[in-house]
């Protein structure tokens, strides 16, 4: 690794990096506008990254303060076995853990635990409700109890993934919910549902239409614990696709935290492919 050197001019690397990221999103089935919107997110803060080369490939790294910790990020790596150099660089900047965004397989980072996945699927033009299930809007009176349960579930998911401590997860939840739902139940673009079967509620849904070009984001498609194992999980995914079309979008996207193997298996079987995967390792 002694041949790796940091470069001052990032122009040569940057053009190729953005082309590769954009091509990866297009290959995953993203429309042109959606791929460009995702690229903008992927390169956020790029001017502050450190770029190095061994003459054959590139490594791009950076550090940030996130949820009370100094976090190193490996943004790009085309140098074979360049991980050791990237980790040493992050540790030298005081990072307590190092994260990486992956698409198309774990490769050299297979031993990094999965912390989060972004999944997406195009929806059928005539998405229909599954038989035996009905959907109604969550009422404003039901919203406070729903919100409390949703927040508790979100915190538990983060902690289970190993990403944050319970205290850090609670702080993140407070920030995220305030950002996502600044007007609570009346926040524009957001819809809340109750799924019912045989006259009783079996779960809830929360979606954000127009989250990205042509995309509805499924913040939550939750089947109540006592109703699980009855096929409602698969039905909930169909409800999400139906809601996507109701909002005028063509694809549904959502996040799943690491450690939730049951949910990941369900998403695999219902055609929601991994668009981005985030892995991390303590240093």
From TrEMBL:
CDD domains: NAT_SF. InterPro entries: Acyl_CoA_acyltransferase (IPR016181), GNAT_dom (IPR000182). It comes from the Bacteria. Signal peptide: none annotated. PROSITE patterns: GNAT (PS51186). Residues 133-283 form the N-acetyltransferase domain. This is N-acetyltransferase domain-containing protein. It comes from Streptomyces nojiriensis.
